Amino acid sequence: MTRPAVILGGGGHAKVVVDLLRAHGHPILGFVTPEGPVCPVAGMGVPYLGRDDDLAGLDVDSVVLALGFGSVRPGEARRSVFERFKAAGFTFATLCHPAAVIAGDVQLGEGCQIMAGAVVQTGCRIADNVIVNTRVALDHDCLIGAHVHIATGAAISGGVRIESGAHIGAGAVVIQGVRVGAGGLVAAGAVVIGNVPDHCAVAGVPARPMAVGRLGEGSGA
User: Fold this and answer.
1) How far is residue 40's CA from residue 66's CA, in Å, rounded to a whole number?
2) Residue 150: CB partners within 8 Å, gap ≥ 6?
3) C-alpha pair distances (Å), 16 with each of 113, 116, 129, 137
4) According to DSSP H, which parts of 11-93 are helical?
5) 201-203/208-209 β-pairing
6) Beta-bridge partner residues of 48
7) 3-state DSSP helix/strand/coil percent for the chain, to nearest 5?
8) Is residue 13 part of a domain?
9) Residue of 18, 46, 84, 135 with fewest CB within 10 Å of its CB?
10) What is the pLDDT of residues 113-132, one digit of tens each?
11) Whole-model pTM?
């Protein structure tokens, strides 16, 4: 029997996760969030279960978790929440929308979310807690590190390596064979034609480093 899901977060991304779960007929126990019960996801008829700490009383083998927040830049929010609940013994659901196209040999890590309209081609390996968002095109033999967010409409060519914690902005293009370093940021609409160093932000066409200093803390969204 499928274990019911608890969603961590209650904002816009959580609404998409609710729809993703419902598309699979996956039961939803409710959601938790520090913001309280008045959240966008509550309008979808999902019960509010309290704050994160209220999950301490749940049997970790009776539910699965789904992260209900994304990111707008690299940062530690999604990574830290994922690792905290994993350390407590919880399991995260790996979710693929029925309207996504995923090659049969693709490897998906725990807690990955592949959204509607995404295409993930043969040979791709995707680590834990990755978001491949709406209409992303991920071509053959890409390696995607843990906690990466590839935002809506990005196009990633074959053989690209995106290291842990990086963020690829909406509509960005990354050409074949490029490496985006750990914690790197590719701004929305950028066209990346060369490697991006760790913790570097790039923007523009072609993409060039942004004068924003070393990237560290990011905000969830």
Assistant:
1) 16
2) 130, 131, 132, 133, 136, 138, 144, 156, 162, 168
3) 10, 10, 16, 19
4) 12-23, 77-87
5) antiparallel
6) 31
7) 15, 25, 60
8) yes
9) 84
10) 999 999 999 999 999 999 99
11) 0.92
Residue 145 sits in the same domain as residue 53: no
For residue 183 the two structure tokens come to 């914690």
Cα–Cα–Cα angle for 168, 174, 196, rounded to 5 degrees? 70
Cα–Cα–Cα angle for 133, 138, 202, nearest 5°? 75
Same domain? For 60 and 113 the reply is: no
Hey, which bits of 133-218 come out as E strands?
A: 137-138, 143-144, 149-150, 155-156, 161-162, 167-168, 173-174, 179-180, 185-186, 191-192, 201-203, 208-209
The answer to whether residue 84 sits within a structural domain is no
State pLDDT tens for residues 134-176: 999 999 999 999 999 999 999 999 999 999 999 999 999 999 9
Rg of the Cα trace of the chain?
17
Count of structural domains, the chain: 2
Same domain, 52 and 101: no
Claim to verify: residue 45 and residue 108 sit in the same structural domain: no
Domain of 64, in residue numbers: 5-69
